[in-house]
Amino acid sequence: MGAGSATVRTAALQGVTARPVKVEVSSSGGIPGLDIVGMPDTAVLEARSRVRCALRSSNFELPRAHITINLAPGGMRKTGTAFDLPIAVAILIATGQLPPSVADDTLFAGELALDGSVCPVRGDMAYALLAKDQGLRLVTSADSDLTGGWGSDALAVRALAQLRGGVDGLAPLGSARAGEKDLELRERLDFADVVDQELAKRAMTIAAAGRHGMLMVGPPGAGKTMLARRLPTILPPLGEDEQAEALLVHSVAGQSVEGISRGERPFRSPHHSISVGGLVGGGRPVTPGEISLAHEGVLFLDELPEFPRVALQALRQPLEDHVVRIVRVDDIYEFPCDFQLVAAANPCPCGHLGDPGHECTCAPAKVAAYQSRIGGPLIDRIDVVVDVARPSSSKVIQGGEGMGSEEMAGLVAEAREFRAWRESREGEAHDPVAASLEPRAQATFERLADRLALGGRAIVRVARVARTIADLGQRERVSEDDVVEALGFRSRALE
Predict the structure, then answer these.
(1) Could you say which of 374, 391, 425 is where a domain stops?
(2) Are residues 489 and 370 located together in one domain of the fold?
(3) What is the CATH number of the domain that holds 131?
(4) pTM for this structure?
(5) What is the β-pairing status of strands 214-217 and 340-345?
(6) Could you read off the pLDDT of 180-211 as tens digits, one per residue?
(7) How far is CA 324 from CA 296, 383, 449, in A?
(8) Among 396, 405, 412, 463, which residue has the fewest nearby CB atoms (within 10 Å)?
(9) What's the rounded Cα separation, in Å, for the pair 266 and 107?
């Protein structure tokens, strides 16, 4: 770097990936001012004002020169406020107020407040991964959401003035946050709180053991939402790779990572007024939608028929591919979305069809129109459909309890362990249709599949559920009872 110039490393977010960017600064004679080039958006252009105030508040000199700031490569769109810190550092190096060694093997990302303090930005997890891949040190805000091992290699800076001592004097991000009070765990949910819903709990156990999509149908007040919110309590904790991916998505979206950092699986429950972009992702800059925020966790869609039809149909491809691709003029953005879908619906517009305690006032045509809002192709991708009846008043008042989360979680863990053992014995996992059905089970399956006119995809999904039921019973072969139970969770109305 020659006199009057400097280069500092940073990155630009594109989807869930941080792509390398170099902040090149050159000072020259002319009218004093700051020019930023390299396809900056409005937030990046506004960095000029934030950087000026931050330099002045930190007792650095604002040079009376014309400074050109280039964000290379120039053909990549730059968005967000994370460029504030690297721009300020590059200006200070170019004007001789910081030594060039400050930028050696270092990647900077942070927003500057007008008083010179460094604020956190979304996507710190992506910046940390890029820095690790390139063998660099990440310097970011001390208030960053990076937790655990992901923040141990990052350096924390609270104010721009701290850089006078160089980056070697900065504390690691982990130690900078070590003194903070641990967050209290949220209220523990338990299936034992849900009274008189043992069939639905059985369906939940099957869905959790096999990661099956699930739809609950029942009248208002039956407990569908209570059941759905407790599903994460019986799922196994996030593995290391799963946790890293979930942290990355939430970090890029600017969402809280408190629960994920404790190993809890995400639970997302968007309102039925959500747009397609809010559900699958989009906007400018392009950010993850609810299906990606539910990655490695649960996506709960309450009042399923009330969702816009176009939004529901947009779920079909992500459910199959576990990734959503958003095409824009400048690039293609990919977000992971390997989630477990749980939905709830009333059986009719008034909600009381089939409810013995209330009379349904809906005409048959209205019931058919209401149920058809979901769409056959989406229902075809849901494996478990269960009726959730209104619980007994006496049991609710008396406070009876059934299976709790601890017992159900044990069954799920044992089923998953048994499946792993079975598949290790079989080598490559068999196609679900060719699963080891007992002779009577196969005959019953063929007869009932013909009677119910199941399509190819439906047959495959019923076979998967039957295989999961057998794993819950730790049986190597699928029995006739397993098939009948699986079909019972498939052959209900609302299809």
Answers:
(1) 425
(2) no
(3) 3.30.230.10
(4) 0.86
(5) parallel
(6) 444 344 457 889 888 888 899 999 999 999 99
(7) 14, 21, 33
(8) 396
(9) 30
In a shared domain, residues 70 and 124: yes
Strand partners for 268: 299
User: How many structural domains does the chain have?
Assistant: 3
- Assign 383 to helix, strand or coil: coil
Instruction: Count CA atoms within 13 Å of residue 334 on its CB side.
Output: 7
Backbone angles phi, psi at 30, to 5 degrees: 125, -170
Spatial contact of 337 and 456, defined as CB atoms under 8 Å apart: no
Q: What CATH number does residue 360 fall under?
A: 3.40.50.300
The CA-CA-CA angle for residues 384, 389, 391, to 5°, reads 130
Q: Would residue 84 count as lying in a domain? A: yes
Q: How far is CA 268 from CA 190, 215, 284, 294, 490, in A?
A: 18, 16, 22, 6, 25
Three-class DSSP category at 217 = strand
CATH of the domain at 467: 1.10.8
pLDDT per residue as tens digits for the range 6-64: 999 999 998 889 999 999 999 887 778 889 999 999 999 999 999 999 999 999 988 88
Domain that holds residue 61: 5-176
Per-residue pLDDT tens digits for 79-98: 999 999 999 999 999 999 99
On whether residue 181 sits in a domain, the answer given is no
- CB-based contacts of 142, cutoff 8 Å, min separation 6: 118, 156, 157, 158, 171, 173, 176, 177
Domain assignment present for 275 = yes
Q: Does residue 185 sit within a domain?
A: no
CB 229 within 8 A of CB 270: no
- Tell whether 397 and 436 lie within a shared domain: no
Q: Same domain for 339 and 397?
A: yes
Q: Which residue has the tokens 């014309």?
A: 66
**Please, are residues 24 and 7 in contact by the beta-carbon 8 Å criterion?**
yes
The H or E element containing residue 56 is helix 47-57
Domain shared by 70 and 196, yes or no: no
H-assigned helices in 211-315: 224-229, 240-253, 258-261, 276-280, 290-293, 309-313
Domain shared by 151 and 204, yes or no = no
| Residue spans of alpha helices (H) in 325-438 | 364-372, 376-379, 393-398, 405-426
Q: How many CB atoms lie within 10 A of CB 334?
A: 16
* Exposure string over 129-149, b if 16+ CB within 10 A, otherwise e: bbbeeeebbbbbbbbbbbbee
pLDDT, tens digit (0-9, with 9 covering 90-100), for 147-187: 656 656 789 999 999 999 888 888 888 655 544 444 344 45
Whether residue 440 is predicted with pLDDT greater than 60 in this model: the reply is yes
Both 25 and 120 in one domain: the answer is yes
For residue 395, give both structure tokens: 């049991």
Burial 90-122 (b: 16+ CB within 10 A, else e): bbbbbbeebeeebbeebbbbbbbeeebbbbbbb
- For residues 33 and 30, what is the distance between their CA atoms, to the nearest angstrom? 9
Are residues 326 and 212 part of one domain?
yes
